[in-house]
Amino acid sequence: MRNEEIGDFLKKCQVFFIATDDDGQPRVRPFGAYLLTDGKANCDEQGAPYKNALEAA
Question: 48: domain range?
Answer without folding.
Answer: 3-56
